């Protein structure tokens, strides 16, 4: 899916080095049962998909709700997988939430990769429009 190239390439390299890799991610394809996880294997990578309604055209609040929904459900789901290391890669920054939850539940170290230029990208995209949200965004 769009935006997943970096995660796919990293996971593929780990698989080629002999590691078992599970990716917990969202799917914006809502043709399947929209509340059910589905799993598939892609090039040796076990991908766990949760359909979540999301689009860049959504307003700020709706996008925040989508990120929150995924974070809550992904944290619960990932905490039930087996792992030696939890690797969480953003964007969005809320992806740290399920990573932390899984890391603690599995007693596994976590690596958090921040890929989002915050708040520069949301400001440039027009998501953070008001000066108040821009200042708040800059402080996070």
Structure description:
The protein is α/β, with parallel strands linked by helices and 140 residues long. It has one domain (5-138). The protein is 39% helix and 19% strand. The strands form two sheets. It has a three-stranded mixed beta sheet. It has a two-stranded parallel ribbon with strand order 4-5. The longest helix has 19 residues, at 60-78. It is globular and about 50 Å long.
Topology:
Layout: H1 5-16, E1 22-27, E2 38-42, E3 45-51, H2 60-78, E4 86-89, H3 96-106, E5 110-113, H4 120-124, H5 131-138
Parallel strand pairs: 1-3, 4-5
Antiparallel strand pairs: 2-3
Helix pairs in contact: 2-3
- Percent of residues in helices: 25-40%
Unreliable stretches (pLDDT < 50, length at least 5) are: none
Number of domains: 1
**Reading side by side through the largest sheet, how are the strands ordered?**
1-3-2
Helix-and-strand structural type: alpha/beta
Residue-averaged pLDDT: 84
Apparent shape:
globular
Which labels suit this protein?
5 helices, 5 strands, alpha/beta, two-stranded parallel ribbon, 3-stranded mixed sheet
Task: Summarize, please.
This protein is an alpha/beta fold. The protein has helices at 5-16, 60-78, 96-106, 120-124, 131-138, and strands spanning 22-27, 38-42, 45-51, 86-89, 110-113. It contains five helices and five strands.
